[in-house]
Specification:
By secondary structure, the protein is an alpha/beta fold. The chain has seven helices and eleven strands. It has one domain (36-213, 225-239, 250-272): Rossmann fold (3-Layer(aba) Sandwich). The protein has helices at 3-9, 33-38, 66-75, 91-96, 112-124, 142-155, 212-217, and strands at 49-53, 79-83, 88-89, 104-108, 128-134, 158-163, 176-182, 188-195, 202-208, 232-233, 266-269. Strand 5 (128-134), helix 6 (142-155) and strand 6 form a beta-alpha-beta unit.
Length: 275
């Protein structure tokens, strides 16, 4: 075989349908062994976009990310940014899961243009270990997704984008696309891998989700906390962190940026929110 061709075929990022390999490099486990086994790096991709597709909120899309958020907030001195979340995250539930509240930054854009700007700036700033973003489907194009993908690579940020199931019919540059659906078994969610680096689509995988808040409160089985309320607070202010002396938080990624449309999106550290 030609030496140059043989060298090309041995490249670690070249995938052949007859072979399955795990790319070398840093590893960020998803926290679920069966999902890690299905992914290159044995975990989340270390650059680019990860799309989570679901039409129903509160089926476990956030609980599926709890192991990742816990690891990142405890081990990295960077923000985990939440851009345009549809509800307020529950500080009690996140803290019960071991997530450091003083590493969470909530960004509240006022317009779709500010939303996309905030997503791109937070991703490429380098001050965020991860970003959770909710996109307005009316303003999502392939060009927008490509810009966010490049920004995530530039900043070394894990980018989780929440999109409706209909987005599965559209082309996307995302390295990983996952569709989540509720199951009849409490505490589990079915996950379909629609697109992954180094493999064919796969699924469904059954993920057993943690419910640390209910465990902490010792709730009886006959009176469980409704699933859609465990990590979301539909209205009202954030609950303040129970830690009276949080460590110094990192510098927000939007602090030194020029703002579009007359002002930057409002950014709020979760641990600093008041009643």
């Amino acid at each position: 075989m030609n030496a140059s061709l043989d060298q090309l075929l041995q490249h670690p990022k070249l995938w052949r349908a007859t072979a399955s390999s795990t790319l070398p490099g840093p590893r960020q486990s998803t926290g679920f062994a069966n999902l890690d086994d299905a992914l290159d790096h044995a975990g989340w991709p270390q650059d680019g976009l990860i799309e989570l597709l679901a039409d129903t909120q509160g089926i476990g899309e956030l609980r599926a990310l709890l192991p990742t958020l816990r690891t990142l907030t405890q081990k990295e001195d960077r923000w985990v940014a939440w851009v345009a979340p549809p509800h307020l995250p529950s500080a009690q539930a996140l803290e019960a899961a071991g997530v450091r509240l003083d590493r969470l930054l909530l960004i509240h854009p006022k317009t779709p243009q500010e939303q996309l700007w905030a997503l791109e700036q937070a991703l490429k700033s380098g001050t965020c270990s991860a970003l959770l973003g909710w996109l307005d489907p009316r303003h999502v194009t392939h060009q927008v997704l490509r810009r966010l993908q490049l920004a995530a690579r530039q900043g070394g940020t894990l980018a989780f984008l929440f999109r409706p199931e209909a987005a599965a019919q559209e082309a996307s540059p995302a390295e990983l696309r996952l569709r989540l659906e509720a199951t009849d078994e409490p505490g589990t969610v079915a996950l379909h891998i629609l697109k992954r680096r180094g493999g064919w689509p796969l699924g469904p995988l059954q993920l057993t989700l943690q419910d640390p808040l209910s465990q902490r409160l010792c709730l009886p089985e006959e009176a469980p906390v409704p699933q859609q309320r465990r990590l979301w607070v539909p209205r009202g202010p954030f609950r303040e962190s129970l830690n009276p002396n949080p460590t110094a938080a990192p510098t927000p990624p939007l602090g030194a940026q020029a703002a579009p449309l007359g002002g930057s999106p409002e950014a709020t550290p979760l641990s600093g929110a008041r009643h």
